[in-house]
Design a protein that fits this description.
The complex is a heterodimer of chains A (405) and B (139). Chain A has 405 residues and is an alpha/beta fold. Chain A has helices at residues 18-24, 41-61, 74-88, 104-115, 133-139, 162-171, 191-194, 246-281, 310-315, 338-342, 347-350, 364-383, 386-392; strands spanning 6-7, 68-71, 95-99, 119-123, 144-148, 175-179, 198-202, 213-217, 287-289, 300-305, 321-322, 324-325, 353-357. Chain A has 2 domains: 6-11 and 263-386, Aspartate Aminotransferase, domain 1 (Alpha-Beta Complex); 18-259, Type I PLP-dependent aspartate aminotransferase-like (Major domain) (Aspartate Aminotransferase, domain 2), CATH 3.40.640. Chain A has 13 helices and 13 strands. Chain A has a 7-stranded mixed beta sheet with strand order 2-8-7-6-5-3-4, with helices on both faces. A 4-stranded antiparallel beta sheet of chain A has the order 9-10-13-12. A two-stranded parallel sheet of chain A has the order 1-11. In chain A, strand 6, helix 7 and strand 7 (198-202) form a beta-alpha-beta unit. Chain A starts with 5 loop residues before the first strand and ends in a 13-residue tail after the last helix. Chain B has a 3-stranded antiparallel beta sheet with strand order 1-2-3. In chain B, helix 1 (5-12) crosses helix 2, helix 2 packs across helix 5 and helix 4 packs across helix 5 (105-125). Chain B is built from 5 helices and 3 strands. Helix content of chain B is 40%, strand content 19%. Classes of the chains: A alpha/beta (405), B alpha+beta (139).
Chain lengths: 405, 139
């Protein structure tokens, strides 16, 4: 029997794996110690748990445990990496290169840096969501200190050419930071093979707890340092003060270990279901997959249904299926997704998109149900859509003079 | 966001979805909104030439649940009214009836605009002057 509601918003957050919860529980009451307490068994037990988790986290991304800085999550990691590099390397330059489709935690951090006198270049993406490596090369200047480009996009799931970006950064003596929040745990990420200098990721996108993440900071070739953004006890090699979240860290470590061991299985499972979902929904007339289909996360799909509006579409089933719309229509601004707009989608398609994020817990029954519900709702709303009627009559919607608000 | 029961009801069972013959002299059509704003409403009225009573009203809407509900409700209210009575329908009546939250008030404004546009289309077709309405400006 299908249990409702179905959860397909795993790019927002994943449920925790029960094995992760089990790992965390002893660190709330039995082993509650402060990992920085060096003089008693409570502290030792906590420190041991942190050390073990640090190894689990490092192993997932091919790093040395010493290169892992625990944070509260990806947003903090983005802030610490970008502001930290900007401040630490101020004598070398003040120019940062990023991309228009980055997460707000990166874009708004860059905006902050612009206000304090830094210079930021925002690269456009191609229609498939990938950057043009030549444009990146052309944007590098003698004052460039950092390239900040996400590993995989949170809305469309496209995977950027990380190795090429890293090679370009290295050739020009520029540091490369990647927000890998959606990629780590889902696809193989290896900071050495990929050539990444700094990288952020978080527990709750990979079946771990919320409120715990990590920033990878390279220690060799080159040795990278970031200026701390919080002053205090000098934890995490002085880069991130604050008492360590021991249960969170233990859970995050376990989540990383499970992702490393089960990644192939998870990816095979989600990609089969994702493809089934995508193929079925593309049977609907005038539906389009957004973003590059080849260089893409295995569990993500972003589909636009022309001439129906995203929020209206969600309303047809959002009691029973948890999904997100590319359209941020609930805000007063009525602006559709800036990521989809950056891919060159017209407002009509950008307003009509759904983002699907599957997980290791998604079942075929859930996908079948989703296909049926969405198909029915799209067809029903098109019967109600004046745009669909005009399209069917062969009227060019661009030829109409709309009363813009 | 939680929708009111009335919005959900109109969304699930919209009243008067459809198309009237826009070439007919007794039909007035109003098309308002824009695809890039995420809302387009088309509202049509069919007027009994002898009595001036709106004998049928239909809508089609591209938009969120509140936009669909606003236009569905508008068609219900229009039927049986004279054109002169229809002019007086105010967007705030729709807001009240559907319990629309502040961010959705523009949906009701759009419905009011659609009613007025349909009435003016009917008037022009029948050799009458267009009525001039005050801008609501809450879009």
């Amino acid at each position: 029997m299908l249990k409702l509601p179905v959860y397909l918003d795993n790019n927002a957050t994943t449920p925790m794996d029960p094995r992760v919860l089990e790992t965390m529980i002893p660190y709330f009451m039995e082993n509650f110690g402060n990992a920085a307490s060096r003089n008693h068994p409570f502290g030792w037990a906590a420190e041991e748990a942190v050390d073990y988790a640090r190894e689990q986290v490092a192993q997932l991304i091919g790093a040395d445990p010493k290169e892992i800085i625990f944070t509260s999550g990806a947003t903090e990691g983005d802030n610490l990496a970008i502001k930290g590099v900007y401040e630490m390397y101020a004598s070398k330059g003040n120019h940062i290169i990023t991309v228009t489709t980055e997460h707000k935690a990166v874009l708004d951090t860059c905006k902050h840096i612009e206000k304090t006198g830094g210079e930021v270049t925002y690269l456009q993406v191609k229609e498939d969501g990938l950057i043009d490596i030549k444009e990146l090369e052309a944007a590098i200047k003698p004052t460039t200190i950092l390239i900040s480009i996400m590993y995989a996009n949170n809305e469309v799931g496209v995977i950027q050419p990380i190795k090429e970006i890293a090679a370009l950064a290295k050739k020009n003596g520029v540091l490369f930071f990647s927000d890998a929040t959606q990629a780590v745990g889902k696809i193989p990420v290896d900071v050495i093979k990929d050539g990444i200098d700094l990288m952020t990721f978080t527990g709750h996108k990979m079946y771990g707890p919320k409120g715990i993440g990590a920033l990878y900071v390279r220690r060799k070739n080159p040795r990278v340092k970031v200026t701390a953004q919080m002053d205090g006890g000098g934890h995490e090699r002085g880069m991130r003060s604050g008492t360590l979240n021991v249960p969170g860290i233990a859970g995050f470590g376990k989540a990383c270990e499970l992702c490393r061991l089960e990644m192939d299985k998870d990816a095979a499972h989600t990609s089969v279901l994702r493809d089934k979902l995508e193929n079925a929904l593309c049977q609907i007339e005038e539906s389009y997959v957004n973003g590059n289909k080849e260089h893409r996360l295995p569990h993500v799909a972003n589909i636009s249904f022309k001439h129906v509006e995203g929020e209206g579409l969600l309303m047809g089933f959002n009691k029973n299926i948890a999904l997100s719309s590319g359209s941020a229509c609930t805000s007063a601004s009525l602006e559709p997704s800036y990521v989809l707009k950056a891919l060159g989608l017209g407002d009509d398609l950008a307003h009509s998109s759904l983002r699907f994020g599957l997980s290791r817990f998604t079942t075929e029954e859930q996908i079948d149900y989703t296909i049926e519900q969405i198909t029915n709702t799209v067809l029903k709303l098109r019967d109600m859509s004046p745009l669909w009627e005009m399209y069917k009559e062969g009227i060019d919607l661009n030829s109409i003079e709309w009363a813009h608000h | 966001m939680a929708y009111s029961d009335k919005v959900i009801d109109h969304y699930s069972n919209p009243k008067n979805v459809g198309t009237l013959d826009k070439a007919s002299k007794s039909v007035g059509t109003g098309l308002v909104g824009a695809p890039e704003c995420g809302d387009v409403m088309r509202l049509q009225i069919e007027v009994d030439d002898a009595t001036g009573i709106i004998k049928d009203a239909k809508f089609k809407t591209f938009g969120c649940g509140s936009a669909i509900a606003s236009s569905s409700l508008a068609t219900e209210w229009l039927k049986g009214k004279t054109v002169d009575q229809a002019v007086t329908i105010d967007n705030m009546d729709i807001v009240e009836e559907l319990n629309l939250p502040p961010v959705k008030i523009h949906c009701s404004v759009l419905a009011e605009d659609a009613i007025k546009a349909a009435i003016n289309d009917y008037r022009v077709k029948n050799g009458l002057e267009q009525l001039v309405f005050e801008e609501k400006g809450v879009h």
